[in-house]
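Hey, quick one: can you model this chain's 3D structure?
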Amino acid sequence: MRKLYIVQRHDEFDAIINNCPSKKSNSFVIYYKDNNYKYDRYGISVGKKLGNAVERNSYKRKIRAIIDNYKKNYVNQKDYIIILRRSAKDKSFQELESDFNNLMHKIRKDFCNEEK
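Sure thing. Here's the predicted structure for all 116 residues.
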């Protein structure tokens, strides 16, 4: 994932988490808001309770791989903050992928309903 597609600034990250709607599953919490760009941006957060730095970075790489594989399916000019929950620790890559795609589908469905 290129740096262009990453929410990097701390104040943007906090503003999205504190002021925007979210969707939750067993593995993820995803906050989202509209942006003024022609592309989606993502921020990933993995808490310390999920393991040491090596394990947390491994989870981030998995989430980035999932995003790269499916980002063409849900382009809708939004910023997403993806927070991994502790229950994701015992799940395989395929289960994480399925959970993430189901959650993104729900967000996209809500976004389409808002436009009508």
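One thing worth noting: The chain is about 45% helix and 20% strand.
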